[in-house]
User: What shape does this take?
Amino acid sequence: MTPLQHLSMMDNQKELFPIVDEEGHVLGSINRKQAHDGSKILHPVVHLHLFNSQGELFLQKRPEWKDIQPGKWDTATGGHVDYGESVSHALRREVGEELGVTDFNERFICKYVFESKRERELVYVFATTYDGIVSPNPGELAGGRFFSKDEIKEKMGKDFFTPNFEEEYMRIFGK
Assistant: This one.
């Protein structure tokens, strides 16, 4: 990979995200670099759990160039809400960009605050059942596939999934 190709496959550190309170009210804006530098300034993200009709869950593989959890398996779609964008629009945009899926009916599951060593996010969680074609975008993801519940359970706690996916999966589906 040339240096120019590598630069094009990095997150835009100047991208603007809203600063929110725990209810989701916008208080200001912050760029990606500031949001991920340990400041713990709360910013919103959207997650979509995409199931097929057999109950398998589609997961994405995060590319090695990502600034958070590179190379790990994660929620089908996870992305930031841009400053000035609604949660609903962000979800549709991210699912389209990452998976090429545009025709789906999401259902809201919950929202919660996730905190890691580097960041603090207000996570809006949605789910859908979808049996159409899923086409992971190679400019966004390192791939993706459907996992059975048993396969997910077997790989939990083995540094295969992102910590956020494991926590969220157990919170919502692990009961």
